[in-house]
């Protein structure tokens, strides 16, 4: 009788050990599956957020090509303004230079020479 009880206990222990192993294997399998699923979800979320950021960047900053075109356009406008100003003022500058070179104050030169001699 006691041998039967011991056998039943040993059999119950083996059954319990088997169920524990199965439960651990099931848990390991579930944890692994959850980890794989989480990695996939993170990748999808990362891709989605990256796409949102790129769209935001394009919306707020414009594309690099558009920025380059806009900067070139602004630069060309500024160059044209400077050329127009130079053209308008060119005659005045030449006239001023000629007037300054040709209109020498001889009295001032004489006064300077006198001071140098003394």
Automatic annotation (TrEMBL):
Highest taxon listed in the record's lineage: Eukaryota
Coiled-coil residue windows: 39-92
Keyword set includes NADP: no
InterPro entries: V-ATPase_G
Keywords associated with the record: Coiled coil, Hydrogen ion transport, Ion transport, Transport
SUBUNIT field: V-ATPase is a heteromultimeric enzyme made up of two complexes: the ATP-hydrolytic V1 complex and the proton translocation V0 complex.
Function: Subunit of the V1 complex of vacuolar(H+)-ATPase (V-ATPase), a multisubunit enzyme composed of a peripheral complex (V1) that hydrolyzes ATP and a membrane integral complex (V0) that translocates protons. V-ATPase is responsible for acidifying and maintaining the pH of intracellular compartments and in some cell types, is targeted to the plasma membrane, where it is responsible for acidifying the extracellular environment.
Family: Belongs to the V-ATPase G subunit family.
Protein name: V-type proton ATPase subunit G
Organism: Anaeramoeba flamelloides
Classification lineage: Eukaryota, Metamonada, Anaeramoebidae, Anaeramoeba
């Amino acid at each position: 009788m006691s041998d039967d009880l011991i056998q039943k206990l040993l059999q119950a222990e083996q059954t319990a050990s088997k169920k524990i192993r199965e439960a651990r294997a099931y848990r390991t399998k579930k944890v692994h599956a959850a980890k794989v699923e989480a990695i996939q979800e993170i990748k999808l979320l990362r891709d989605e957020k990256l796409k949102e950021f790129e769209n935001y960047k394009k919306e707020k900053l414009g594309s690099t090509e558009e920025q380059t075109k806009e900067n070139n356009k602004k630069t060309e406008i500024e160059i044209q303004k400077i050329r127009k100003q130079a053209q308008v003022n060119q005659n005045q500058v030449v006239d001023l230079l000629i007037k300054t070179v040709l209109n020498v104050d001889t009295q001032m030169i004489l006064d300077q020479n006198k001071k140098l001699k003394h």
